[in-house]
């Protein structure tokens, strides 16, 4: 198949690793630690998982992990 993104025809949502954000904060980027950015990620999510400390519902980004693990 020719193409990259057009062949995948999907969008991947990934927050990144908490350690990376915390390292950026340690390097002087105030406000970029994991605890600083997590609320912004959650504010925009409409996650399929039950509401918990890491996932929220009602945001404009539809997040469904089931496609990644092969659930129908």
Written description of the protein model:
There is one protein chain. The chain is mainly α and 72 residues long. 39% of the residues lie in helices and 8% in strands. It has four helices and two strands, in the order αααββα. It has a two-stranded parallel ribbon with strand order 1-2. The radius of gyration is 15 Å and the shape is flat. The two termini are 24 Å apart. The model has no long low-confidence stretch (mean pLDDT 83).
Mean pLDDT: 83
The gyration radius over C-alpha positions equals: 15 Å
Order of helices and strands: HHHEEH
Q: Which runs of at least 5 residues are low in confidence (pLDDT < 50)?
A: none
DSSP strand tally? 2
The shape, in one word, is flat
How would you classify the helix and strand content by structural class? mainly alpha
SS strand fraction: 5-15%
Q: In angstroms, what separates the terminal alpha carbons?
A: 24 Å
Q: How much helical structure, as a percent, in the residues?
A: 25-40%
| Biggest beta sheet summary | 2 strands, parallel
Adjacency order of strands in the biggest sheet? 1-2
How many helices in DSSP terms? Answer: 4
Summarize the structure.
Helix content is 39%, strand content 8%.
Which characteristics define this entry?
two-stranded parallel sheet; 2 strands; mainly alpha; 72 residues; 8% strand; flat; single chain
